[in-house]
Amino acid sequence: MGHTHNFFKSKKGWSRQKDGIFDCYLLPYIAKILTTHRPLVIIDCFAGKGRFDDGNTGSPIIIADHISSVLESDKENKNIRGLFIESKYGRDLETNLRNYKNCEVWQGTFEENVNRILELDSRCNLFLYIDPYGIKCLDFQQFELIKNKNFSSLEMLLNFNSFGFLREGCRLLNLNYENLFKDDQSEDEYELDESNTTERMNNIAHGEYWQSIIDDYKNDKIDMFKAEELFLNEYMKQIKNLFAYVVNIPIRLKIGNIPKYRLIFGSNHPHGMILMADNMSRRWKELKNVQRGGQKALFEYEFPDQSIRPGFDLKEGILNVLRKHNKSLLLQELLVKLFENYGIAFSKKDYNDKIREMEGNQILVDREPAYTKTGKKATALDYRKYKIIVGLKC
Fold it and tell me: What was the pLDDT predicted at 187?
């Protein structure tokens, strides 16, 4: 059974990080998506109370505050609303949201409310914030059903407990999992469900691939760091069947630890992908600085994923992407592929700064129009104002 009774006592640091990422993304996302003049529905699929006992706000209040800002600036705007799904703390949530307009609480679980989501007008822009406690109610088929509704646009931010999944998988496959908890990873932060089954885990993972990963761990072929990485890579492949663009950020309490969670973002729009990945990168760097306390620590990972090692040559990374993709790409396409290749290790500014440094040397940058309105040669790297093509210099 789950251990949620003390969850809302105080808001932990990792929870502030993931909600902070979500909060920072909502402002530009809402501003952009409302220009489509189609309704926007933001659904918090595991809403909780809305407010922690220590006074910190939860994701429902974050969403409701953004909706209020829109309504205050345009009191006639009816094109935005928030839906909040909650089974256990529905009354608390309704109390905490009572002063907010265009906000509605749906009682029950996410699974029980999927059909209500499917009844929404397909002309809506839909954003799903999926932040469950543990791995419950994440049957992948539910995501497929929502995707197949073909909403005007669909974006999803999923907080996925990859380590907790493997821990539960070890239990179901009769492998001792007690030694998996080290330092910050205590058992009471991972949901236990004695009624869980291997079949249910297959439904969550959308396949049986996780079982062979645990077998390799059991046979000492890989350690738990590698097991989590392999599992996440396979799960991301399933998410990529739903969205054109996918990126993830590992949430750790300490930089050298196995990720506590993976925050996975999916979008079908390149600008949405760039916006979220850039936001994730900046937030991760802030977290790294907080963890270090302003001082360099030994044996820390310099990048959020172990796939990129200290000393990685970003210049060569950019060239490799261009070589792989027909030697030239629109700037936004290049940025998307860089984020897909290297995750959130670098920000949009990091990439743009390196492209400027390489321009005229290893690469060519063509802008259309080539000159500004004042007749000066265009040098900006703003793909919203210019058509920018980046290619290899012959």
Answer: 41
